[in-house]
Every structure is written in C-alpha cells, then in structure tokens.
Amino acid sequence: MYSGARFAILKVMMKTLLPLALAALIAAPASAACIAEYKAKRDNPLELFYGTAQIGGPCNLAQARAQLRGQLASQGLTLLKVLSVRQQ
Fold first, then answer.
1. What is the residue-wise DSSP string for 2-15?
2. I need a labelling partner for 30 at 20 to 30 A (CA). Which of 7, 39, 45, 57 fits?
3. What is the secondary structure of 25-87 as a DSSP string?
4. For residue 3, which phi and psi values (nearest 5 degrees)?
5. May I ask which residue range the UniProt record assigns to the signal sequence (predicted)?
6. What is the pTM of this model?
7. Which residues, other chains included, contact 58 with Cβ-Cβ below 8 Å and sequence gap of 6+?
8. Distances (CA, A) of 77 to 15, 39, 60, 70
9. Exposure pattern of 12-50 as b/e (b: 16+ CB <10 Å)?
C-alpha cells in the first residue's frame, strides 16, 4: 500500500495533471485546420485547376485569397476564385 507521503504526492500530482489534461482536450478543437477550396488557371495553353489548401491565420476569405495568390503564383498559376473556407 501507499505510505502517507507517497499518497500525498500522488494526490498533488492528480490535482495538477487532471486540469492540464482537460485544458489540452478543450484547446484541441481551437487548433483545427482551415481549408480553402479554390479555382485557378494557367495560360498558354489554358489549363483550369480546382484544389484545396490549408490556410494559416484567420479562417476567412481575405486570408485565403492572400495566401493562395502567393502559393499559386509560385506554381505559375493565377487564382480565379476562392469557393469556400471552412474549419476542419
């Protein structure tokens, strides 16, 4: 069995670890990914693309447009439209 000192240490650890574990579980949905659906194009010859991408920062259309323009430009694509933005 546990001696008095060991039981006291175990009790303190449980009081500390339980709230930390609960806080981690509650915070997990807050870090959900933001996914944007988009249409893009490449010229000469014309190619149309549909895709999804993970967006960092605020999960809104303006943020998605700003990030996707840069990402797609590095691939030689032009963003046509952000179709939707959602938390996942």
1. --HHHHHHHHHHHH
2. 39
3. HHHGGGG--EEEEEEEEETTTTEEEEEEEEE-SS-SHHHHHHHHHHHHHTTT-EEEEEEEEEE
4. -80, 170
5. 1-32
6. 0.63
7. 34
8. 54, 10, 21, 9
9. eeeeeeeeeeeeeeeeeeeeeebbbebebeeeeeeeeee
